[in-house]
Amino acid sequence: MSGYSIKNLAGQFGVTPRALRFYEDKGLLSPARRGQTRIYSERDKTRLLLTLRGKRLGFSLEECKEIIDMYDPSQSNDTRQLVRLCQKITEHRRALLEKMKDVEATLKTMDEVEQNCLDKLLKNVAQG
Prior knowledge:
Blueprint: H1 6-13, H2 17-25, E1 32-34, E2 37-39, H3 42-56, H4 61-69, H5 80-127
Antiparallel strand pairs: 1-2
């Protein structure tokens, strides 16, 4: 049986074997077994690649699984997966933009408080 060992696949993607076992528990990967040894297939390798890409985009593992599981190689014109991916990207972009606004507002408030503190310090030094 050809395939990838847990150590080999983890090394290729810069993840830990524990992460691969976790992804397996979540249903993202389904390696074959030879006794206690996990043998990962090309399909598992592709699913891992897509999972890690989804995580970089901010998707939860559940969202990654939902989108990846929609893929049906027998339906080459099936657009469900692409539509769902676009919907998820739109949702995450909206959430990130909201977080950016929150961060910008926080930084503005911090600037104001810091400037107020510096003004008081300068006033105290000048009086002192």
